[in-house]
């Protein structure tokens, strides 16, 4: 059966937002709160093993900054700190500093024209998703996606399958009719646990992750003049950029 629905992760998949977006916004929020914490590029790469911004802050304090004396209302402190980070992140996006990854805009336009359904499954907050789509894709891009499953809509973050299962339930579509797009091992494990075939496009933070079992692992979606490199995966393809024909070929193989 041909694929009917594409479900996209956001950070690292639609755009390289982690190193120069989220990390910078976290550091700005820390400084504005009077904290002397600084997350370097290397440290942030380690922290990305934990999905979810609030969860990442807690993990940092539990494993990297154990001497910090947590305030009594710690949960509220983390929530406020994360909210401040989200504000800085959306401000960064408004400057147009986060272009989409190669092939993303082209592919979304093609599959929309063909009538495929689109959804998002991400651990980032809805505000972050909205800002990225609005400033990096199109003012009306949120309406392109039938379901935007984001943030705390489910309690268990990736690699748990909950966010994908939520998206499937909201769409009313079986997993086998879908194709997921991910960039990280946690994302791949989440989609795989929800039984959704998955295509991976790695980035600098995820190039060493284990994607065993994914349909295909690429360096990017590619463009006609900018072909992707195949890095692994269970399938083979003669295509040089991801388009609707390639997606249907992979899904039906």
* Domain count: 2
Q: Give the overall silhouette.
A: globular
- The proportion of residues in beta strands is 5-15%
Task: Measure the end-to-end span.
Answer: 10 Å
CATH architecture of the largest domain: 3-Layer(aba) Sandwich
Strand order of the largest sheet: 3-2-1-4-5-6-7
The quaternary organization reads as single chain
CATH class of the largest domain: Alpha Beta
What is CATH's topology name of the largest domain?
A: Rossmann fold
Order of helices and strands: EHHHHHEHEHEHEEEH
Helix content: 40-55%
Low-confidence stretches are: none
Biggest sheet character:
7 strands, mixed
| Count of runs of 4 or more consecutive helical residues | 9
Structural class: alpha/beta
Name the CATH superfamily classification of the largest domain.
HAD superfamily/HAD-like
Mean pLDDT: 95
């Amino acid at each position: 059966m041909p694929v009917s629905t594409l479900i996209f992760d956001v950070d690292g998949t639609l755009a390289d937002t982690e190193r120069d977006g989220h990390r910078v916004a976290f550091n700005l929020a820390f400084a504005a709160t009077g904290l002397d914490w600084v997350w370097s590029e290397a440290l942030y790469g380690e922290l990305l093993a934990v999905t979810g911004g609030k969860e990442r802050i807690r993990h940092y304090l539990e494993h990297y900054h154990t001497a910090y004396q947590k305030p009594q209302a710690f949960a509220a402190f983390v929530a406020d700190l994360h909210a401040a980070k989200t504000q800085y992140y959306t401000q960064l996006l408004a400057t147009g500093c986060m272009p989409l990854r190669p092939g993303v805009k082209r592919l979304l336009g093609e599959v929309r024209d063909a009538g495929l359904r689109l959804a998002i499954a991400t651990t980032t907050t809805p505000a972050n998703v909205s800002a990225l789509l609005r400033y990096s894709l199109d003012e009306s891009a949120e309406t392109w996606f039938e379901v935007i499953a984001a943030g705390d809509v489910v309690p268990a973050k990736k690699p748990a399958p909950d966010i994908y299962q939520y998206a499937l339930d909201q769409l009313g579509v079986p997993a086998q009719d879908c194709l997921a797009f991910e960039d990280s091992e946690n994302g791949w494990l989440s989609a795989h646990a929800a039984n959704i075939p998955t295509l991976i496009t790695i980035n600098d933070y995820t190039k060493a992750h284990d994607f065993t079992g994914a349909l295909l692992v690429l360096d990017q979606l590619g463009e006609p003049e900018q072909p992707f490199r195949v890095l692994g995966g269970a399938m083979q393809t003669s295509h040089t950029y991801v388009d609707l024909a390639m997606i249907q070929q992979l899904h039906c193989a």
